């Protein structure tokens, strides 16, 4: 794996661990994403 790919992979891993660390952080993330996502989701 290239160093750039590895760096992004580690960054994503670290960010996901921080998000799921607590229920409050996860809820805040979901609320912020819901505000940013302006397109409807079709099943």
Q: Features of this protein?
A:
43 residues, mainly alpha, 72% helix, 0% strand
In words, what does this structure look like?
The N and C termini lie far apart (35 Å). The chain is 72% helix and 0% strand. The chain has one domain. The protein has helices spanning 3-19, 23-36. With 43 residues, the protein is mainly alpha-helical.
Report how far apart the termini are: 35 Å
Beta fraction of the residues?
under 5%
Structural class: mainly alpha
Q: Radius of gyration in whole Å, from Cα?
A: 14 Å
Indicate how many domains the architecture comprises.
1
Helix fraction by DSSP (H/I, runs of at least 4): over 70%
Shape: flat
Integer average pLDDT: 84
The number of helices is 2
Topology:
Elements: H1 3-19, H2 23-36
State the gist of this model.
By secondary structure, the chain is mainly α.
């Amino acid at each position: 794996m290239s160093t750039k790919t590895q760096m992004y992979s580690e960054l994503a891993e670290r960010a996901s661990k921080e998000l799921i660390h607590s229920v409050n952080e996860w809820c805040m993330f979901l609320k912020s994403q819901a505000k940013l996502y302006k397109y409807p989701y079709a099943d």
